[in-house]
Design a protein that fits this description.
Elements: H1 6-31
Amino acid sequence: MPQLAPVNWLLLFFLFWFAVGITSTLIWWSSKTEYKIQGMSSPKNSSVSGAEPKSWNW
């Protein structure tokens, strides 16, 4: 295994956890059905006045 300077190990450490964090955030965000973009096949609601804003369900 090649020797790396401590700065390189820190860079790899932070880069790894940054990638893990971004990936897990994207997976978590895409699992929330109420925030998914509606597809072309879904019916569109033209009246905005009756729509209620959705709250964050943490």
